[in-house]
Amino acid sequence: MGPALCLLSAACFGAMAIFGKLAYDDGVSSGSLLLVRFALAAVLLGVVLLVRPALRRAGSEAAPGRSAVTRRRALATAVGLGAIGYATQAGLFFSALRLMDASLLALVLYTYPVLVTVAAVLLGRDRLTPARGTALVAASAGTLLVLLGAGAVSFHPLGALMAFGAAITYTGYILVADTVVRRLAPVVLSALVMTGAAGTLAVIALSTGGIDLDFGRSGWFWLACIAVVSTVVAMLTFFAGLRRTGPSTAAILSTFEPVVTATLAGLVLGETLTTVQFVGAALVLSSVGALQLRRGTTPTRIRDQDRGHRPAAERAEPATLAS
Prior knowledge:
Elements (H helix, E strand, L loop, with lengths): L1 H13 L1 H10 L4 H22 L15 H33 L2 H8 L2 H11 L7 H19 L8 H24 L5 H22 L9 H29 L1 H7 L2 H13 L6 H23 L2 H9 L3 H4 L8
Helix pairs in contact: 1-10, 1-12, 2-10, 3-9, 3-10, 4-8, 4-9, 5-7, 5-8, 6-8, 6-11, 7-11, 7-12, 7-13, 9-10, 10-11
């Protein structure tokens, strides 16, 4: 289930650029898009938690004897993830989208799987196995082909700088999220992240004179798509997948996102996929398959031995997810 959840999350996130372009075409500003996105997502997740109280505890774990302290720390970290990490990453991403082509923006942003994998290895949270390294190279190469196959793109230095800043911010976001993803239920974690991000953006909006919500129904429709599909569903499936796969594998599987973006751009915006892009998409999908095959064919005894070398935070997976 871990890889499948990561792929579903990547598909939902991949649709966000298309929704964003359509929202921009209907007169929605970047500030309005961000604030409405996170505020609406926070409300929706809050409603889910009210209707389904059991989801507040589903999948969460706590260290014996330190449950209260651990939970308070996890709650504060989750709010900080949204208020600082996600709000910053989203702001940089959508600001860069105003200045540069989406394909080049995605190319710069998708340096983050490499950054996450390298950082996780350096921090001792993960190991760069031959299979994972090969999958990372294949996924990165495929992503390059998908994006570069689009042809000529415009380059904007400030936009590129903000795009790389978004990649660095998202790297830190994933690594910090990995420390709390097993302490809080996915819905709770997602709701707190959305609330934190909405709070930061609301403060920014108030300090800059508010936001413009004077746009039509179609604009609201695309904002709803961004909030529900590319935020709520995407976040829940990402956190659920992250806690099962670890940061490196989750980051590698997330390279499926630009493939989805390119495909939807062809279907919705009339952009044509080239042969090079199809080859790149095949590389990304093959890397995903290789990761899943590796997980499925490794003997249980070897997997258990490998699990024994992982940090305690990663070993604390429910027994039902060990296979």
